[in-house]
Amino acid sequence: MPKTLPTTGPGRPKNLIKRAAILDAAQALFLRHGYDGSSMDAIAQEAGVSKLTVYNHFTDKETLFCAAIEAKCETQLTLLFVSSTDTPPSNLRECLLGIAHSFQALVDSPESLAMHRLIISHALSNPALSLLFYEATALRIINKMEQLLMTIDKAKQLDIAKPRQAAEHFFSLLKGTRNLQLLVGYQPEHASLNVQQDVEDVVDLFIKAYQPNP
Predict the structure, then answer these.
(1) Domain that holds residue 192
(2) How far apart are CA 28 and CA 38, in angstroms?
(3) Quick one: which of 5, 47, 59, 117 has the most CB atoms within 10 Å?
(4) Do residue 125 and residue 200 come from a single domain?
């Protein structure tokens, strides 16, 4: 069913409401029908706007796809990094645990897995989509983590000579083999029972690896 646009509220111009509706519709249809199976007509109908309105906001489907992914990632970044990356955390372990648990929940979510499968299915036929997806998601998360680790290193909470590399290691360890298993639809018995402990182990290992020399 096409979505009904909410009425314009104070401080929120109508065009921003329409833009948000288009982005929500695009995210839903891209996941449901894939990139090639989602037309601008269908997205307009799902959003409850005209096709012309969609094109007024987004020049083509590729631009809309990128904007939809970026909008989703912006929300995810807010959930991952609840505090400023320019301020040293008052409790280092709790800060890293918060990021780690949020990241694990994000990448293992059905929505994230579906989007990754979608991008993989188009990797050979449309590599530009893969680049757009990577830059809007993983790259932004790594950049944000690098900023935080630079702040932590400067405050001498950890000794991190290569914060970029450390950020990549942190998220790679969190994904482990579990994320690949979920991605390909393989779920070993009791696999989900150890997730929380696995996340804590990764954080403790990370802190130990970059512990400043006495």
Answers:
(1) 62-210
(2) 10
(3) 47
(4) yes
**Helix residue ranges, H only, the chain:** 14-33, 40-47, 51-57, 61-80, 92-107, 110-121, 127-136, 138-154, 163-175, 178-183, 195-209
Same domain, 118 and 183: yes
Question: Residue 8 carries which DSSP code?
Answer: P
In this structure, the answer to whether residues 105 and 176 fall within a common structural domain is: yes
Largest CA distance in the chain: 65
How many CB atoms within 10 Å of residue 77? Answer: 15
Instruction: Show contacts of 99-106: CB within 8 Å, 24+ apart.
Output: 99/145, 99/148, 100/170, 100/174, 100/199, 100/202, 100/203, 101/196, 101/199, 103/141, 103/171, 103/174, 104/174, 104/195, 104/199, 106/76, 106/79, 106/80
Neighbour-count burial of 99, counting CB atoms closer than 10 A to its CB (0-12 exposed, 13-18 middle, 19+ buried): buried
CB-CB neighbours of 19 under 10 Å: 20
Is 6 contained in some domain? no
On average, the pLDDT of the chain sits at: 87
Segment 99-155, tens digit of pLDDT: 999 999 889 888 889 888 888 988 888 888 888 888 888 998 999 999 999 999 999
Do 183 and 134 reside in the same domain of the chain? Answer: yes
pTM above 0.85, yes or no: no
Tell whether the torsion through CA atoms of 192, 72, 119 and 46 is positive or negative.
positive
Helix (H) or strand (E) holding 189: none
